[in-house]
Design brief:
The chain is of the alpha+beta class. It has one domain: TusA-like domain (Translation Initiation Factor IF3, 2-Layer Sandwich), CATH 3.30.110. Helix content is 30%, strand content 32%. It is built from two helices and four strands, in the order βαβαββ. A four-stranded mixed beta sheet has the order 1-2-4-3, covered by helices on one side.
Length: 74
């Protein structure tokens, strides 16, 4: 069974708000869910790397295009 990716818009938020909001939002999901966060704060990729290591989440990808897409599996 394939997990559905849930996209969460955190555009316009500056450090540390993307991580703080992500931490609160993740509590509404269950282990194994895949979340994709849309951000445009340049500090967010490094923040999400550290966040995932601390919380033992799997950082699946970081893609930089018009905005930054960070995909994790909780």
């Amino acid at each position: 069974m394939k997990n559905e990716t849930n996209t969460i818009d955190l555009l316009g938020l500056k450090c540390p708000l993307p991580i703080l909001r992500a931490n609160r939002i993740i509590k509404n999901y269950k282990k194994g869910d895949i979340l994709e966060f849309l951000v445009n704060d340049e500090a967010a990729p490094d923040d999400f790397k550290a966040f995932c290591q601390t919380k033992k989440f799997n950082l699946l990808s970081i893609k930089r295009q018009e905005n930054i897409k960070i995909k994790i599996k909780i």
